Amino acid sequence: MRVISGRFKGHPLKAVPNMKTRPTTDKVKESLFHQIGPYFDGGTALDLFAGSGNLGIEAISRGMSSVVFVDHQYPAIQTVKDNVKKLKIYDQCEIFRNDAIRAIKAAGKHGKKFDYIFLDPPYRKVPFDKIFNQLLKADVLAKEAMVICEHDPKDELPLDLKQFEVVKQDTYSSTIAVTIFSYNLGGKS
Predict the structure, then answer these.
(1) What's the pTM?
(2) Of 96, 119, 129, 166, which has the fewest Cβ atoms less than 10 A away?
(3) Sign (positive/negative) of CA torsion 146, 152, 153, 155?
(4) Are 77 and 98 in contact (CB under 8 A)?
(5) Where are the beta strands (DSSP E) in 62-176?
(6) pLDDT truncated to tens, each residue of the chain (189 aa)?
(7) DSSP secondary-structure letter at 8?
(8) pLDDT computed for residue 55 by the predictor
(9) Is 100 within 8 Å of 112 (Cβ atoms)?
(10) CB count, 10 Å around CB of 85?
(11) Is the Cβ–Cβ distance between 50 and 22 less than 8 Å?
(12) How many H-runs (helices) and E-runs (strands) does the chain carry?
């Protein structure tokens, strides 16, 4: 695993030392960043189910101002910390060991707003509709925020929420798909 582009291009990233996470492949990562960036002039992101921090670190490398990393697993949080330390980007990161729903609630209570939300949960184990509804309820989405979901193509995504519009949907293999949603505060017209 490595950073693909930006100021940390080519830097290797440590993987989580267990079989409970599946890193985003370079091909998928490159494609999704080309669709949402590929580079940023600031902005904030939430990397839920962060694993090694691969997506959030790539976002920082490409110009994102700050990223909040959240994962429920202790080994994943330690890996994110190691990767952040290695790249010396502590001042751009917040790292929390927490359940995704609780983390969203906490972010809302602290008045945080995110321009980008990366969702890469364990396949078929997390109900996406529950996460999307919590994002709305906690009011953590900045105007025109994007929610990027890496998922199993068979996963059910909340395609009927009026505040979200599917911008792009790609299937990369029988087990990997990416759907990008745009948040519209007023709902679809």
Answers:
(1) 0.93
(2) 166
(3) negative
(4) no
(5) 66-71, 93-97, 114-119, 141-151, 164-171
(6) 899 999 999 999 999 987 666 678 888 999 999 999 999 999 999 999 999 999 999 999 999 999 999 999 999 999 999 999 999 999 999 999 999 999 999 999 999 999 999 998 887 777 899 999 999 999 999 999 999 999 989 888 888 888 999 999 999 988 899 999 999 875 654
(7) T
(8) 96
(9) no
(10) 11
(11) no
(12) 5, 7
Strand ranges across the sheet with 114-119? 93-97, 66-71, 44-48, 114-119, 141-151, 177-183, 164-171
**Token duo for residue 184:** 């519209």
**In the 8-state DSSP scheme, what is residue 157?**
-
Bridge partner residues of 2 (DSSP) = 12
Q: How far is CA 129 from CA 6, 69, 75, in A?
A: 33, 21, 27
In the chain, the amino acid numbered 13 is L
Q: Residue 60: its pLDDT value, please? A: 98
Residue 118 pairs in a beta bridge with: 47, 148
